[in-house]
Design a protein that fits this description.
The complex is a heterodimer of chains A (189) and B (193).
Chain A: H1 10-22, H2 31-42, H3 48-60, H4 65-103, H5 105-110, H6 112-142, H7 146-160, H8 166-188
Helix pairs in contact in A: 1-4, 3-4, 7-8
Chain B: H1 2-16, H2 21-35, H3 41-53, H4 58-101, H5 105-135, H6 149-164, H7 171-192
Helix pairs in contact in B: 1-2, 1-4, 2-4, 3-4, 6-7
Classes of the chains: A mainly alpha (189), B mainly alpha (193).
């Protein structure tokens, strides 16, 4: 069974992913609020659950989390071609910018205006990250999803305080989720 | 051939960098300053600084920078492609499995656990971004010696604007506006002190 692909999506996919990548400042996780606002809420390309699935799986793969997450979105939107488009759109802003900077990097790194604007931007990024986290945890609490709150809190403590490698955290979460799901099924019977 | 060497070396970096950009840094450093003497240690430190200042994943930025420095623009492209190559293959396999089996018991069970765990990890990332923006350092080594009032004021206003003003609900608009307003504020502060 071959699904019919809508290739009209490729151009918007490229452009939206390009913008997303250009504003992923301050680490891969910044892609989460950007994806949530654009792909989930505004364009309706993916559901919030799917977004979390993509982010989770992206973290479990090697390489850059933000690139991997975009690749999942690309595949969902238009299969392998979508994935290729997403890849180019994610990598291109970095390639252009870093190539330009690599020729003038001393001037760039010590420029006071650049520094001031970037520091200002990181304050904006802080607000955006706070917003997305409050939204996600708020949703768990609203749905009275106690198990999710506990898992999220445990993962947070492990990584923020004990600096556990996230691969172990994700592996344990996988197993826990599997056990919880199968027990719920057993109880339902 | 330098292009092939860059490509292959960054494939190795790509494969070994599990768990976020900073996990890849020591591997990149070893690859470009020890295994291959493409850059000096000082140049590498500059790359890390620049990667923190620019958008995009740190691994990609480092790959681009190393490639361009050693073999021009084409070198940058080769190194970057090498870095993303292993991830592409693994993500493709996972994406196909996900599309096919996401409703299966095993897969949905695993995702049931992964989703909240990811929220926990995102929260941790958010907290460290916020504390670095406000205090210039991570929470654990916080001393409150360098509270950045401008950053706090901008972040609070940005947070409120995002909720109240419709055309500023886009994170991109908020980040760009913070850059302009914050940039001006820091420059004025710098001129006054």
């Amino acid at each position: 069974m071959k699904e019919k692909r809508n290739y009209k999506i490729l151009l918007p996919l490229f452009w939206e992913t390009f913008k997303l990548s250009a504003f992923t400042i301050g680490g891969g996780y910044v892609i989460v609020p950007l994806m949530k606002k654009k792909f989930v809420e505004k364009l309706g390309w993916i559901s919030e659950e799917e977004m979390l699935d993509f982010v989770s799986m992206a973290q479990s793969c090697p390489g850059a989390m933000a690139v991997n997450a975009s690749l999942f979105v690309g595949y969902k939107m238009a299969g392998f071609i979508g994935q290729a488009v997403s890849l180019i759109a994610t990598v291109l802003p970095c390639l252009i910018l870093l190539t330009a900077i690599s020729f003038v990097y001393v001037a760039f790194a010590s420029n006071t205006v650049v520094k001031a604007v970037l520091t200002g931007m990181s304050a904006g990024v802080a607000a955006v990250m706070a917003d997305v986290v409050i939204g996600m945890i708020g949703k768990f609490i609203k749905n009275k999803d106690v198990i999710s709150v506990i898992i999220a809190a445990a993962a947070f403590v492990c990584v923020a305080i004990f600096k556990v490698n996230i691969i172990y955290i994700l592996a344990v979460a996988c197993i826990l989720g599997f056990i919880i799901n199968s027990r719920k099924k057993g109880a339902g019977k | 051939m330098i292009y092939l060497e860059l490509f292959l070396n960054f494939i190795y970096v790509g494969i070994t960098s599990f768990g976020g950009g900073y996990a890849a840094l020591p591997i990149i450093q070893h690859t470009v300053t020890k295994s291959n003497e493409w850059l000096t240690s000082t140049e590498f430190t500059d790359i890390v600084t620049i990667s923190q200042m620019t958008p995009g994943p740190i691994g990609i930025n480092a790959a681009t920078f190393v490639g361009v420095k050693t073999a021009g623009v084409l070198g940058g492209i080769c190194a970057t492609l090498g870095f993303v190559f292993p991830a592409c293959i693994i993500v493709t396999i996972l994406a196909v499995i996900y599309a096919k089996y996401k409703k299966s018991d095993v897969m949905s069970g695993m995702l049931r656990g992964l989703r909240p765990a990811s929220v926990g990890l995102i929260t941790s990332a958010a907290l460290s971004i916020i504390t670095v923006a406000f205090f210039g350092q991570e929470l654990l080594e916080l001393t409150f010696a360098s509270v950045d009032l401008i950053a706090i004021v901008i972040a609070v206003i940005a947070f409120i604007l995002m909720k109240k003003v419709k055309f500023l609900s886009s994170p991109i608009a908020i980040i760009a506006l913070s850059g302009v307003v914050g940039g001006a504020a820091y420059l004025i502060q710098g001129a006054l002190v």
